[in-house]
């Protein structure tokens, strides 16, 4: 089946991100396709490129990037939810006059329209939230 | 009178479970509903649990400098989002009656609510 994931929980604050990543790995291992993960609400913090968790904890940001590298899973971040929480890619940082950027590829800033599109394209859209 | 036993089917059901002001759940859920409607989806809204308080009449933006959600709710009709449901049990729990609410939502029993969820191919819960 073709799956999509909607992730609404912040990494390390809630179980949601850990569960979503493990669910993603499990369905890929069973031969399903995962089209995209859409990060919305506090889920956008999963795209923070500066995240530096202790080495003996799962690295969620790297975990998502690995899914993209190995399975081509798109990592779509709601731009409105991201900007107000300080998550900007290079282009947005320049546009808003910020000295640094906090989001980088393979995460992409995009609109909620992509979430609606994902829901239409997939057989199942599974939401993970706190 | 609306027939609460047979909810209309739509393309997208957005379930709102949080009250306004205390968090951004309601605002971001409503944003998803508006975008869905702008993309041509038939969008229905279901206010559950604390979410029913979003519809209480006479709300202001509050003291925290947030925009508030009442103006967004008043825009729903412009986006052709006209089917608004509220969880009847939650209304009772908060001591509210339909007359206390803006936009004239239709109360749904627990059974009707389950059917409403089942008749939508896409459900987003906030």
UniProtKB/TrEMBL annotation, chain A:
<dbReference type="InterPro" id="IPR003787">
    <property type="entry name" value="Sulphur_relay_DsrE/F-like"/>
</dbReference>
<keyword id="KW-0963">Cytoplasm</keyword>
<dbReference type="GO" id="GO:0002143">
    <property type="term" value="P:tRNA wobble position uridine thiolation"/>
</dbReference>
<keyword id="KW-0808">Transferase</keyword>
<protein>
    <submittedName>
        <fullName>tRNA 5-methylaminomethyl-2-thiouridine synthase subunit TusD</fullName>
    </submittedName>
</protein>
<dbReference type="GO" id="GO:0016783">
    <property type="term" value="F:sulfurtransferase activity"/>
</dbReference>
<comment type="similarity">
    <text>Belongs to the DsrE/TusD family.</text>
</comment>
<dbReference type="GO" id="GO:0097163">
    <property type="term" value="F:sulfur carrier activity"/>
</dbReference>
<dbReference type="InterPro" id="IPR027396">
    <property type="entry name" value="DsrEFH-like"/>
</dbReference>
<dbReference type="GO" id="GO:1990228">
    <property type="term" value="C:sulfurtransferase complex"/>
</dbReference>
<dbReference type="InterPro" id="IPR017463">
    <property type="entry name" value="Sulphur_relay_TusD/DsrE"/>
</dbReference>
<dbReference type="Pfam" id="PF02635">
    <property type="entry name" value="DsrE"/>
</dbReference>
Automatic annotation (TrEMBL), chain B:
<dbReference type="InterPro" id="IPR003787">
    <property type="entry name" value="Sulphur_relay_DsrE/F-like"/>
</dbReference>
<protein>
    <submittedName>
        <fullName>tRNA 5-methylaminomethyl-2-thiouridine synthase subunit TusC</fullName>
    </submittedName>
</protein>
<comment type="similarity">
    <text>Belongs to the DsrF/TusC family.</text>
</comment>
<dbReference type="Pfam" id="PF02635">
    <property type="entry name" value="DsrE"/>
</dbReference>
<dbReference type="InterPro" id="IPR017462">
    <property type="entry name" value="Sulphur_relay_TusC/DsrF"/>
</dbReference>
<dbReference type="InterPro" id="IPR027396">
    <property type="entry name" value="DsrEFH-like"/>
</dbReference>
